[in-house]
Design a protein that fits this description.
The chain is built from 11 helices and 23 strands. By secondary structure, it is of the alpha+beta class. Strands 1, 4, 5, 7, 8, 11, 14, 16 and 17 form a 9-stranded mixed sheet that branches. InterPro entries: Peptidase_M4/M1_CTD_sf (IPR027268).
C-alpha cells in the first residue's frame, strides 16, 4: 500500500503540472490532386464519395501526382457539411504557389501565413492555411485546393544531404499535402494515389503498390499520419522472405550492404519486444517494409509496418536505429509536441539499448555511457519546449538514462511488468504514469518525478 505522504506528493505534482501547462529548386514542380471527406466535429478529412456520408473520422485522399516537369497537383476534398466546422485551418508547405481554394465552383478567401514560425515544431516548412468554411445546406461541399511546390521545398534529400540527384523523398514533415493544424499525431488518413514517374524511375512507400509502366497506383486503407515515399532512377526495390515474413527493402546501390544486415536486426528486435512486452495488435509481421534513405541526417522514423532509415556509419549505430524505430511500434502513445514526448522517445531509446545488449551489438552500460557524453549539461525534461535546441539529447538520451536508473532500482522483473502496465493503461500524462509506478515497492515515483525536474518536496538520496 502506498504511504500517505506519497499520495500527497503525487497530488501536488499533478496540480503543479496542470497550473504550468505549456503554450505551446530543384527546378521541377510537384503537383497533386486529393479527394477527401471531412467530419467537422473531428476536423479531419474523410473517405467518401459525393453520394455517401463519411463512416469514420479519418481523411481519405485520392491523389493524382506527377513527378514530371512542371506538372500540376490538384487537391480536392469532398466534405460532409452536416456537422460543425471550427475553422482551425490546415498546414501546407510554405513554398506553395498558384494557390486557389474553392467550395464547389466558388472561390473562397483564405489567409496563407508564410511568414513567422511553423504551427507544428516537427513540420518546420509548414505554414497555416486558413479560410472560412462554407455552408452548403444539405449538399456536400467540394473543397478544391490547388497549388504548386518546388521540389527543393519538399525533398528530404535536398534538405538533409542526399547524394542522389535523380531522386525524391518526401513525407509528413514536408507538409506536401495539407494536414490539420495542431499535433501531427491527430491527422490520420487513408489514401489512393496515382503517380506518374519519369521514365526508368522506381519507388517505394507506406502503401500497397501496383505499377503499369511509368504510372504507379499506390494505396493505404489503414489510417496513418503520413504518406511517405522514396522514388529515383537508380532505386532498387527488393522483395524477400524471412521465415513466414514478407520483406521489402528499397535502397540505392551504395546501401546494399545495409539492406542485407537490416532484416535479421529487425526480426530480433521484434522477437525481443514481443517476448518482454507482449504481442502488438495492428502490427503484422507478415509484411515489413524498409526504406533506406540516402540521407546522412534528418529524421529516421517508423510508421505502422515500415521503417525509414538514414545512413549509419557503423553496425552498432545501424542496429540502434532499427531497434529504436521498432520499439516505437510499442512506445507511441504520448503527445509528441510537448515534453511529454519523453515517454515515447525515452522508452524507445532504453528498449533499443536492451535489444542491442541482447543481440550482442553493445552492452547496456556502453549505451548508457555514450548517452551520458551526448547529454552532458542539458536541462531537465519537465517543461522542456519540444523545439528546444537540445530536445533530442534530453528526450532521448537523458530520458533513456533515467529509465536505466529506474530499471536498476526496480529490478528487471518489476520494470518489465511496469512497462506492460503502461502499455495496457496508456496513461495520458506523466502524472498518471507516476501513479502506476506508485503501485510498486519503494519510492521510485518520487525519485523519477524529482529526476524529471518536477518540483517535489521530498529528499531522495539516489542520484539521477
Amino acid at each position: 500500500m502506498q504511504e500517505p505522504v506519497e499520495i500527497h506528493v503525487l497530488d501536488r505534482i499533478s496540480k503543479y503540472i496542470q497550473t504550468r501547462a505549456l503554450d505551446m529548386k530543384r527546378k521541377y514542380l510537384v503537383w497533386l490532386s486529393v479527394i477527401g471527406l471531412m467530419n467537422f466535429s473531428d476536423i479531419f478529412l474523410h473517405k467518401g464519395h459525393a453520394e455517401v456520408a463519411p463512416s469514420s473520422s479519418n481523411t481519405h485522399f485520392e491523389l493524382d501526382i506527377s513527378l514530371l516537369h512542371q506538372t500540376e497537383i490538384l487537391v480536392t476534398a469532398i466534405i460532409n457539411p452536416s456537422s460543425t466546422y471550427h475553422d482551425d485551418g490546415l498546414i501546407l508547405n510554405r513554398g506553395a504557389t498558384n494557390l486557389t481554394v474553392k467550395a464547389n465552383d466558388t472561390d473562397l478567401k483564405y489567409d496563407f501565413l508564410i511568414e513567422g514560425e511553423p504551427p507544428n515544431p516537427f513540420i518546420v516548412r509548414g505554414r497555416p492555411l486558413r479560410f472560412k468554411w462554407p455552408k452548403c445546406g444539405k449538399r456536400l461541399c467540394r473543397l478544391t485546393i490547388s497549388y504548386a511546390i518546388p521540389r527543393t521545398e519538399i525533398d528530404y534529400g535536398s534538405q538533409w544531404g542526399s547524394e542522389q540527384t535523380e531522386a525524391l523523398e518526401t513525407g509528413l514533415y514536408a507538409a506536401w499535402i495539407p494536414v490539420i493544424e495542431g499535433d501531427a499525431d491527430t491527422g490520420k488518413f487513408t489514401f489512393d494515389a496515382r503517380l506518374s514517374l519519369p521514365h526508368g524511375w522506381n519507388m517505394s512507400g507506406n502503401g500497397k503498390l501496383e505499377q503499369w509502366g511509368d504510372t504507379i497506383h499506390f494505396r493505404r486503407m489503414s489510417p496513418g499520419i503520413d504518406f511517405t515515399f522514396l522514388a529515383g532512377e537508380k532505386l532498387s526495390v527488393v522483395a524477400t522472405e524471412k521465415g513466414t515474413t514478407n520483406v521489402e527493402i528499397a535502397h540505392f546501390e551504395d546501401r546494399k550492404s545495409d539492406a542485407e544486415r537490416i532484416v535479421p536486426i529487425a526480426s530480433g528486435a521484434l522477437d525481443f519486444l514481443t517476448e518482454h512486452l507482449g504481442s502488438l495488435s495492428g502490427v503484422s509481421d507478415q509484411a515489413l517494409k524498409f526504406i533506406l534513405s540516402d540521407r546522412r541526417s534528418g529524421p529516421s522514423y517508423s510508421r505502422g509496418n515500415y521503417w525509414v532509415l538514414t545512413r549509419a556509419d557503423e553496425p552498432g549505430a545501424l542496429a540502434n536505429l532499427v531497434a529504436h524505430e521498432t520499439a516505437h511500434f510499442w512506445w507511441n502513445h504520448a503527445p509528441t509536441s510537448t515534453w511529454e514526448d519523453w515517454r515515447n522517445e525515452g522508452f524507445a531509446t532504453f528498449y533499443a539499448w536492451l535489444i542491442l545488449d541482447d543481440m550482442g551489438f553493445r552492452t547496456l552500460e556502453e549505451s548508457v555511457s555514450i548517452a551520458r557524453k551526448r547529454s552532458a549539461e542539458v536541462p531537465h525534461i519537465f517543461g522542456l519546449p519540444r523545439n528546444h535546441p537540445r530536445a533530442h539529447n534530453v528526450l532521448y538520451d537523458s530520458a533513456g538514462i533515467l529509465l536505466h536508473g529506474l530499471y536498476n532500482r526496480m529490478g528487471k522483473v518489476d520494470f518489465l511488468k511496469f512497462s506492460r502496465d503502461i502499455l495496457n493503461q496508456k496513461p495520458a500524462k506523466t502524472t498518471q504514469l507516476l501513479e502506476i509506478l506508485s503501485n510498486y515497492p519503494g519510492q521510485n515515483q518520487l525519485w523519477l518525478a524529482k529526476c524529471l525536474g518536477i518540483p517535489v518536496q521530498a529528499e531522495i538520496l539516489s542520484p539521477c
